[in-house]
Design goal:
seven-stranded parallel sheet
């Protein structure tokens, strides 16, 4: 049985006994093949009365009948992300409740990944982070990058935040954000150096990637003891304008799979393939339940193309940044209708194409959610 729903008046400070996330018997299988049907047909075939967010997301991504298309968005909260686990968890919970979201993609500061190796950012007066120093200066060798213990403060903070969110939102699936090892190396040494050394010192880069993958496989295993799964993000690396497919196959895929191996017992792992011209279809074979990407960017498959090409994975995405930032609420409503038309409202969790802008308008987020519910 799934955990009991926390009451509407629950707060982070209320002691709630959190149970482990519900795991379906076939949790290790990829998302199922969709069955066509109208919204009325879906509603008539949903069993068990009221559906909670975890049930809605699980059923939808498998192509099963549910009451409505699940919806989620995620954003950065500056400067809350740098004020400790309790503050970020509190803000995340409030945002999730405010917009009645069906999934939490827990969004810590992006540079948490590289902090254990010495990377530091500072926060400007407006709350935004700027690089202070990389963990690996240009004059230091890659061999300095070794595996890191989960006792690193950044990792402890991530796990603490996940526990707080899970306790207060027991019926909402929660995912831990983890960058792929190439994305972590970028935060440790800078993208330009990583690209140069892939050509000049490939063996050294491969050794550093192995150390990072080992570290984040262990972190992923710890995360899925707390939450439903991991959200593995490729950042800018799984793109045709960054690396050729064969190069990504050597420097990306083996280490991505190593991290996912740490989360193999999770019920809901998601791969996020960032940016335009990205290897969405190519990487959809990864052992995940769903793939997240921006189908509105050039060179990326549409929702319909993905559903047709990848019959055993769920799709996450569909909304543009403009849908959430523009003053015209017709935009999110139109994009919701387009997504339903392309997917038949099956195997789809409606979301932004990536982290939504901090300038997103609350009323636009609500308009997107309401349009999906209306069908």
């Amino acid at each position: 049985m799934p955990p009991r729903r926390a009451g509407r008046g629950s707060r982070r400070h209320v002691r709630v006994r959190a149970r482990a996330p519900h795991r379906a018997r076939d949790a290790d299988r990829p998302a199922g093949t969709p069955r066509a049907g109208t919204r009325r047909h879906r509603a008539r075939h949903v069993r068990g009365g009221e559906v909670n967010a975890r049930e809605r997301v699980t059923r939808a991504l498998r192509g099963e009948a549910t009451d409505r298309v699940p919806f989620a968005v995620w954003r950065h909260f500056f400067p809350d992300e740098n004020e400790g686990a309790a503050k970020l968890a509190e803000t995340t919970i409030a945002f999730t409740r405010r917009h009645r979201l069906d999934l939490v993609k827990y969004n810590p500061r992006a540079h948490y990944h590289a902090e254990p190796w010495g990377t530091r950012y500072r926060y400007r007066a407006d709350g935004h982070p700027v690089l202070a120093r990389y963990g690996l200066p240009n004059d230091e060798p890659w061999k300095r990058i070794g595996p890191v213990s989960l006792d690193a403060p950044a990792f402890r903070e991530l796990l603490a935040g996940l526990r707080l969110v899970r306790t207060v939102l027991p019926d909402v699936p929660v995912l831990a954000t983890i960058f792929t090892p190439l994305g972590v190396l970028e935060r440790i040494a800078g993208k330009e150096r990583v690209l140069l050394d892939i050509e000049r010192r490939p063996d050294e880069v491969l050794a550093a990637l192995a150390a990072v993958a080992e570290t984040f496989a262990a972190l992923a295993a710890a995360c899925v003891q707390v939450c439903d799964g991991v959200f593995l993000a490729t950042t800018s690396w799984a793109r045709r304008d960054t690396l050729a497919a064969g190069t990504y196959g050597r420097f990306g895929t083996p280490f991505d799979l190593g991290v996912l191996a740490g989360a193999r017992r999770a019920s809901l792992n998601v791969l996020h393939v960032c940016g335009p011209g990205s290897y969405v279809i190519d990487l959809a074979r990864y052992p995940v339940s769903a793939v997240s990407w921006n189908p509105r960017l050039g060179g990326n498959p549409s929702l319909a193309a993905f559903i047709a090409a990848v019959p055993d994975r769920g799709a996450i995405g569909g909304f543009s940044d403009d849908a959430f930032t523009a003053g015209d609420l017709a935009i999110p409503r139109r994009e919701a209708a387009e997504g339903i038309a392309q997917t038949g409202a099956r195997r789809w969790l409606a979301a932004g194409g990536c982290t939504i802008p901090v300038t997103s308008r609350p009323e636009a987020i609500d308009a997107a959610r309401d349009a999906l519910a209306a069908g």
